[in-house]
Amino acid sequence: MRTFIAIELPQEIKAILAGFQEKLKASGADVKWVTPESIHLTLKFLGDANDKKIGPIMEALEEVARKKAGFTIRISSLGAFPGLNSIRVIWAGITQGDDAACQIAEDLEDRIAAIGIPKEKRPFSSHITIGRTRSNLNLDKLAIGIETLGKTLAGINLKFSVNKITLFKSTLTSGGPVYEALKTVSLRNS
Q: Lower Cβ count inside 10 Å, N or C end of the chain?
């Protein structure tokens, strides 16, 4: 089964990001938008994990969570990978809480590599994917929208507390992926 570990976002944050998606849709770009209920911050994509690995993955999740204190995330930017000149992934970026999220992701990488799931080749980057382009249609207008809304987002105090991390199962359907929480663990109190 396809699995990943992520930080869930509060509903009010998802709703605000969905509002940004709606504004970006005005560009007419060909984008597959992440459904608002599915927006999250991925800490580790595990890919296909067989049933024998799920137990050890859950243990690794618990072990990492026990060592990490809850923290606050501030979403403060919009951008694109690999960049605004060649948009493939549209994301919301974080400033406050980036170090803590990166540390959790690194610890998960190390702990899960011991289970036999390979480490990522690229370094972890704290971001929240909100869309993926499907073609080059109107990318110039999309880039202007991302840049403009990014300035707006920088002026908003979009913060939330992170006190748990979740192992999700991802089932691919014709309507997009459906996520099911398999295990949620609490971070330790500060």
A: C
pTM given for the model: 0.93
The yes-or-no answer on residue 127 being catalytic is yes
User: Predicted confidence band at 190 (pLDDT cuts at 50, 70, 90)?
Assistant: low
CB-CB neighbours of 67 under 10 Å:
11
The DSSP annotation for 35-87 comes to PGGG-EEEEEEEEE--HHHHHHHHHHHHHHHHH-B-EEEEEEEEEEEEETTEE
Query: Does residue 145 have an active-site annotation?
Result: no
Task: Given the residues 5, 9, 39, 40, select the one marked as catalytic.
Answer: 40
User: Where in the chain are the domains?
Assistant: 2-180
- For domain 2-180, which architecture applies? Alpha-Beta Complex (3.90)
